[in-house]
Write a structure and sequence with these properties.
Length: about 240
């Protein structure tokens, strides 16, 4: 597939990273996302691949360089916070970035059919789905309708947080992000195989609503997120 950011459109920024694995497709894709987030945070987005010419160019096929499994929160629009455009990101969103069968199937489609080299689990501070699950766990009250399915999907992360002695909401969100990464890899042998072969990586990141900054929480393989040097997520001036 094409280098991230180049499929028939405006190339993303060139990044310099150290280490041999920095040249891998998953590492380049992750660097592309953090660079875009850095542009967004610093107030200098390029809005790449959003023009009519690019729209026509990608009409015949898509080669997204990252899958985003994100929360549905209206303040978490992937193409905006990563400063990307049409054909760049394959986005799957549910309240609380849960990983049910349709989500797993969508991820597997991107990784196996489209050859996407990176899966990113995108959570955020003050997540309403996590707060709802916490409330349900504390009071024993069951939410009505299908909202219960969302809460039930988040509850294992609440139990894990309790076992680890974590009780602040953002710490629980980090655990839920890591839990979602583990669920994707544990429930999808196809994804786990792609990661084992180096064709794909899975990274969990947390987004801060007010600052707009994305921070890595976990990565498989573990070295991938640390390749982000300089770290656009924490140093907007680097982007
Ligand atoms: Zn949320």
């Amino acid at each position: 597939m094409s280098r991230p950011g180049t499929p028939g459109g405006q190339p993303g920024p060139q990044r310099t990273t150290d280490g041999a694995s920095a040249t891998s497709e998953p590492a380049r894709a992750y660097a592309e996302l953090t660079a875009g987030n850095g542009r967004f945070v610093s107030g200098a987005p390029r809005h790449p691949n959003q023009d009519a010419g690019h729209r026509a160019a990608v009409a015949d096929g898509q080669h997204p360089f990252a899958v985003i499994v994100g929360c549905s929160d209206s303040r978490l629009a992937a193409e905006i916070i990563f400063d990307r455009g049409l054909g760049d990101l394959f986005v799957v969103r549910t309240a609380g970035h849960t990983a049910g069968p349709e989500v797993l199937g969508s991820v597997e489609y991107a990784v196996t059919v489209l050859g996407t080299p990176l899966v990113v689990v995108l959570g955020h501070d003050s997540c309403g789905a996590v707060q709802a699950a916490r409330e349900s766990a504390e009071t024993g009250a069951q939410p009505s309708g299908h909202l219960r399915a969302v809460v039930d999907a988040v509850l294992p992360s609440l139990r894990r947080a309790e076992a680890e002695g974590v009780d602040d909401i953002d710490g629980i969100v980090d655990i839920h992000i890591a839990q979602t990464v583990e669920t994707l890899l544990g429930q999808s042998p196809v994804l786990a195989e792609a990661v084992a072969q180096g064709r794909c990586a899975v990274v969990g990141v947390s987004y801060r609503l007010a600052a707009g900054v994305v921070r890595p929480v976990t990565a498989v393989p573990s070295g991938l997120a640390s390749l982000d040097v300089p770290n656009a997520a924490t140093d907007p001036a680097a982007a």
